[in-house]
């Protein structure tokens, strides 16, 4: 009998719907906020808000299209392999993504395929067939979670940074701004946890992500450190808008680092360069294992540097721009930054020392880990490791 963590259960199916809800509402509130800025003739805020939405859509639709196209090549080489997109033409696939429907198509196919497995009872499947079906569902879910991770860091995180800057520096507060920030927070948190759980489930040599306390501790680690970074960047932008140059240089450094590590995620060089640029954005806000290697030293150095940035931001604002904000404002934001940083680092240490799932031992016939590998399993194996 398969363990619960190895099955795509009814709860997982319902949680997929929750993820779809957060995705739609997050983008919807940002679009509504852009329209609000437009009505107020705030054209700069309108342009930046729309820019982040379009950046997230462009990257996710591009990768979704290429992954579907790569999967079609697998089907052409192995006609016996079942796939959800084998009947779709390349032109139809391109049109679908051109109109921004790639993510919704993936949600529809995953929910449809999983529904026939988890909500209907069938005695025609053998134990091995059930295992293969569940693994295929988790591979579909992992592809979707990868795209959601891109969207979170290209749209939700920059959007959150922008709206915090507007609210805190210009004292322009509205219900729509708070709604947009709230759903950006929810979408970021959901994307991080969903990605980690799906990725570890779809790779057979990596231990499962346990539910309960380990998931909560991991979520707190990521959520608190990212929140602390975003508020620190916000204070630096309030101090001087030229801080955008420093943040851009940071992104260039991490993009160059990903290039130096020679990531091997995409099937073409051009798309690989785009992937490395996206990795640079992600590493600007949080740490991920780019090459799936031991990163204890790299992670330590990373959080030492970002702790220095987080500690320095409130101090710099109080020393160089005391006239910008009130004491109450500075104390409140400093408490969020320092409290988030401390709690996040404590949760990081707890998770990786006590709760991190260890790698499984490979079977004797899986020495190289490549037997029967498809484009889907290859990209999952080469993607960012938590």
Task: Please outline the helices and strands.
Layout: H1 10-39, H2 43-77, H3 90-98, H4 102-118, H5 127-170, H6 175-202, H7 213-239, H8 243-260, H9 269-285, H10 296-320, H11 327-355, H12 375-382
Helix pairs in contact: 1-2, 1-4, 1-5, 1-6, 2-3, 2-5, 4-5, 5-6, 5-7, 5-9, 6-7, 7-10, 7-11, 8-9, 10-11
Can you offer a commentary on this structure?
The structure is a single chain. The longest helix has 44 residues. The protein is globular and about 70 Å long. The two termini are 29 Å apart. It has 12 helices and no strands. It is 74% helix and 0% strand. About 4% of the residues have low confidence. The chain has 386 residues and is mainly alpha-helical. Helix 2 runs antiparallel to helix 3, helix 5 packs parallel to helix 7 and helix 7 packs antiparallel against helix 11.
Strand content: under 5%
SS class? mainly alpha
Low-confidence stretches: 79-83, 360-370
> Rough shape?
globular
Number of extended strands? 0
Kindly provide the radius of gyration, computed on alpha-carbon positions and rounded to a whole number of angstroms: 22 Å
Helix count, DSSP H or I runs of 4 or more residues? 12
How would you classify the quaternary structure?
single chain
**Percent in helix:** over 70%
The SSE string, one letter per element, is HHHHHHHHHHHH
Indicate the mean pLDDT. Answer: 83
End-to-end C-alpha gap: 29 Å
* Largest sheet properties: none
